Amino acid sequence: MGNMMNRMTVGVAALAFLLTGCAGAQYAMQNYSGITPISWASPTTRKAYRIFDKPAENRLMITLSIGGAAVQGAGAGFTWGLADTRTPEVVYQDAAIEWLATTGRKCTATNASLILEPQYEIRYACEAVVAAPAT
Q1: Nearest 5°: phi and psi at 133?
Q2: Which run of H or of E encompasses 66?
Q3: Which residues are 126's β-sheet partners?
Q4: What are the φ and ψ backbone dihedral angles of 96, each rounded to 5 degrees?
Q5: Is the pTM of this model over 0.85?
Q6: Helix (H, G, I), strand (E, B), or coil: what is residue 41?
Q7: Which of 13, 25, 37, 40 has its C-alpha lying 20 to 30 A from 121's C-alpha?
């Protein structure tokens, strides 16, 4: 009986994990499909990212470049998932704010949340742009 319960517990946990992944992918598709990604490399960390910006909604999705995501996934696979090779959330948040500054916006992050590893949504607030006085 105990072995059967262990199998059921593992099965339920696996199903929950898969559904979480599906929900994250669905969220990304619903909210960011049609947005052309911007490829950008942080001068600070030298990591390459893809950024899907929605300035009208003060939010963006940031993910490692395709190559960076592959390396991260390979690292997890190489260690059989025993080593946490994920990039910390704060790194994505800092990179997003750094990128926003390159667009001339002075912003702060108001929220960062994992969509689906390694994709994070960063919500931000920017200072209002003041128009130069007419001369």
Answers
A1: -65, 145
A2: helix 66-78
A3: 107
A4: -60, -45
A5: no
A6: strand
A7: 13
Question: 3-class DSSP state for residue 33?
Answer: coil
In the numeric block, which tokens belong to residue 46?
């030298």
Residue-level pLDDT, tens digit, the chain, 135 residues: 544 444 433 333 333 343 345 767 788 889 899 999 999 999 998 889 999 999 999 999 999 855 444 454 444 455 555 665 567 889 999 999 999 999 999 999 999 999 987 799 999 999 986 666 666
Query: What gap in Å lies between CA 24 and CA 49, rounded to an integer?
Result: 19
Do residues 60 and 97 lie in contact, with contact meaning Cβ atoms separated by under 8 Å?
no
- 34 contacts 47 by C-beta, under 8 angstroms: no
Question: Which amino acid is residue 52, in one-letter code?
Answer: F
- Can you tell me the distance from the alpha carbon of 6 to that of 9, in angstroms, rounded to the nearest whole number? 5
